[in-house]
Fold this protein.
Amino acid sequence: MAVVPALADDNGLAAAIHDIKREGSKLCQDGHFHTGTSAAEGSKKSAMAQAIASWQSFTALEYGTDWAYYRFAGSKSANCTSGSSGWSCEVQGRPCKVLSRRKK
């Protein structure tokens, strides 16, 4: 397990309980996925936005907002379906955070 200092809005829990690996310019939780869902949305776009918001909200609550940007997540997947009550989506991804660039 990597030793990662808690900085900015990172509560330190991710590095304490999960293996962390560097992936390019990010630190990512290795093998640990979060899921976000939505239901009964009027459009696929709205359902996807709500599923991503669900993923980000739970991830921020658990690890801090540094880890909670779905756009930076590793191994992302998404599945949406349309039914009589509207669109629903499920997104998954491994929480990652961007490594900060230090000013000289």
Q: What stands out?
A: Residues 13-98 form a domain with the Endonuclease I-creI fold (CATH 3.10.28). The beta strands are 20-23, 26-29, 34-37, 74-83, 86-94, 96-98. Helices lie at 13-17, 44-63.
